[in-house]
Amino acid sequence: MDQNNAINQKTRRDFLRQTASGLGSIALGNILNPFAEKGGSDPGYRVNYPARAKRIIYLFQSGGPSQLETFDYKPALEKWHGQEIPPSVQGTQRNSGMVADQSTFPLVKSIYDFKQYGKSGAWVSELFPHTAQIVDDLCIIKSMYTEAINHEPAVIFMQTGSQLTGRPSIGSWLSYGLGSSNENLPGFVVMISKGGGAQPLNSASWGSGFLPSHHQGVQFRAGKDPVLYLNNPYGVHAVDRRRSLDFIKSMNQTQAGIWGDPEIDSKINQYEMAFRMQTAVPEVVDLSNEPEYIFDLYGQDARTPGTYAANCLLARKLAEQDVRFIQLYHMGWDHHGGLPRGIKHQATQTDQANAALITDLKQRGLLEDTLVIWGGEFGRTSFSQGQLTKDNYGRDHHPGCYTMWMAGGGIKPGMVYGETDELGYNVMRNPVHVHDFQATLLHLMGIDHEQLIYKYQGRRFRLTDVHGRVVHDVLS
Fold this sequence. Notes:
Blueprint: H1 3-18, H2 23-32, E1 55-62, H3 76-80, H4 87-90, E2 114-117, E3 122-125, H5 129-133, E4 138-145, H6 151-160, H7 170-178, E5 188-192, E6 218-220, H8 238-259, H9 262-284, H10 292-298, H11 308-320, E7 325-331, H12 339-363, E8 370-375, E9 379-380, E10 397-398, E11 402-407, E12 415-417, E13 419-420, E14 427-429, E15 432-433, H13 434-444, E16 454-456, E17 459-461
């Protein structure tokens, strides 16, 4: 054995000897985390307790859906409709600069009717008839609130725990913390549905920040090349690609030994993953073998690649392959004006697919260990932005309260949590901050949010930054 190998062997022996319980602690880690990686990417962390969810599907509705037209029914607004919001109420929250020149702020009821559904008696807008039928599978949280009032910082805050770009996203934290459960597919996949709207998205929302770059989300697109630059160029065969990767890997390993730069290891990891994905990706994105009843369930849009419905169906297929974090972005919920028509369009594109995904996961036995999340970056104001007419109005950004729902993966089904005031302007009971939501999400994956830490530039960073609590009330 040469000197270098001897040093490596000694290091391994020392590690096992010096670990608190040696091999026993590794065995305990596997018991506590039955969903640990199967030879996937390098985990930087182990779970603290048994995970309730194996994977997450996050249906992010970019633009800020109005809670008042979706799940937070406010009959008092019918009485107050057209009257000025009391200054004592309006002054409790910030308004965006887009209403700075507005001189009147009339309260506005929803133009759409609400009814109660299921054993939970949850109120659901007529815009969401399919979601209404699965309401007893959902935990609807009406008391979310955030710190950001403009789109990009609010989206970044929801996804990374900071309003500033440069922090790792939720999926990247989970990739770093838990590794991958499928060695042939990324642990973190992102899809952006087409036809939703023009609201811009910053790729930092699924970036790895200061974590090694192989933990960032991999975007799947519609079309013949679901992952850009994955296929071999014309004339390059798989054997040639394998030889070139082996040669590049040997050079990179030499450089990694000299410089110790973790980004070199990330590059090796990315090359190897891309090679394995050349076979795995075409198979998983192929929907041609799905039976007719599945397309009936998700809706005919599911036959068109890149639509929200098709991406929801693809999310189910990725969940079956144990991809740990699947993020769907659907844009177009930003309704400063023309809200009645705009939100109806969004609901038509998404409602059936949302309900179908829950139903499909449930019938396959996947919902119990898959956490599904629906929601945007903030809510909308109770008063009208712009002119209020008989059949038209808008709503401004509102960070003070908004609604999300969760299902499966350790969440209590058929529950409505939290409450806002009679005008839907402030949280009155059981507030849930963005960091509380993130702490709860990590908890369901078996992670203590205060312990998943990465040291960078002399500071210990975490997803929930410096505060956050697990919302135990919503856990099953």
